[in-house]
Amino acid sequence: MNRKLISIFTNETELSIDVKQTLTKQLVNLGYTVMSEYSRDADLIICIGGDGAFLETIHKCDFPDTPIVGINTGHLGFFQEVLPEDFKKFIKEYENGEYTLQKLSTVKCLVTTADGQKNTHTGLNEITITGRKSYSIHFDISIDGKPIEKFSGDGILVATSAGSTAYNYSLGGSIVDPRLDLLQVTPLAPMNTTAYRSFTSSILLPSELTLGIVPESSENRIYITNDGIETGYSNVKEIEVRTSDRHVNLLRFNDYDFWNKVKDKFL
Ligand code: NAP
Ligand code: MN
């Protein structure tokens, strides 16, 4: 049998490093080739850590098509599927093909600056658009080219379904079952005055719509944060946020249930 190539990533905790060593030994004994970097030829990516480590791995591998599985050594771990003590069971189920792939959507934003430069940022959880700390930011928002609101406040967050349980939920946004493909736009401390009007709760958009953002000309600093990675811009002309065509393929085993996970974490 043609043995497979596996890339293993881990955060720096003692437990994660320990799990990586034990797991590597077992996989090598079974004839797998194991490496610590990403290769396009990899058949599987394993990420050991919590959700933060999972997000880091996804970004390091630049949103790979390769199936990925998380071993949870962090907190509850929404993305993480396997408990360290269960990894023998995991190897057996993986070898027997007893899993499904959960296809997760991602969100991207295209930033155009006044000099015509364009930059893209992609997020698995969310993208936030904010101004300088302690100042409110002002922008016009459109949905599919049609003006919808004049926003003033700390900014907005656009979450994927998989990201709905992260920052979005702390802001009062809704939890979305990842089988629903949509974008959730959640305001961060919106201010409603006679000059600025915006929704005070989240709105849900079907995945084919684009959100357009045009900052007021006086806004000289804007921050785009994708999954916690912040980039500052000056002189932003416009920002478009939409569903990206990239997906993350997560291994899920038979006992996986999204709502069970939500209940475990939040109730
Ligand atoms: P972090 O600030 O260390 O962790 C934020 C927390 O969010 C961690 O407990 C993390 O779980 C959890 N988390 C991440 N993705 C999740 C998801 N899809 N569903 C439920 N919980 C999730 O930063 P990080 O670990 O690098 O994660 C980056 C994320 O932090 C961002 O994408 C953003 O969603 C979130 N964040 C949240 C707040 C807030 O809630 N006020 C503020 C800023 C950023 P683990 O403990 O397993 O890592
Ligand atoms: Mn973290």
Compact description:
By secondary structure, this protein is α+β, with helices and mostly antiparallel strands. The chain has helices spanning 14-29, 51-60, 87-95, 167-170, 258-266, and strands at 5-10, 33-35, 44-49, 68-72, 100-113, 118-123, 126-130, 137-143, 146-159, 182-190, 203-206, 211-215, 222-226, 229-233, 236-252. Helices cover 18% and strands 42% of the residues.
Q: What structural class do you assign from the helix and strand content?
A: alpha+beta
Q: Please tally the β strands and state the result.
A: 15
**Largest sheet, described in full?**
11 strands, antiparallel
Radius of gyration: 20 Å
Give the overall shape.
elongated
Spans of 5+ residues with little confidence (pLDDT < 50)? none
N→C terminal distance: 46 Å
Order of helices and strands: EHEEHEHEEEEEHEEEEEEH
Number of helices: 5
Share in β-strands = 35-45%
Helix content: 10-25%
| Bound chemical compounds | NADP nicotinamide-adenine-dinucleotide phosphate, manganese (II) ion
Would you give an account of this structure?
By secondary structure, the chain is an alpha+beta fold. It has five helices and 15 strands. 18% of the residues lie in helices and 42% in strands. The strands form two sheets. Strands 5, 6, 7, 8, 9, 10, 11, 12, 13, 14 and 15 form an eleven-stranded antiparallel beta sheet that branches. Strands 2-1-3-4 form a four-stranded parallel beta sheet, sandwiched between helices. The radius of gyration is 20 Å and the shape is elongated. The N and C termini lie far apart (46 Å). The mean pLDDT is 96. Manganese (II) ion binds next to loops.
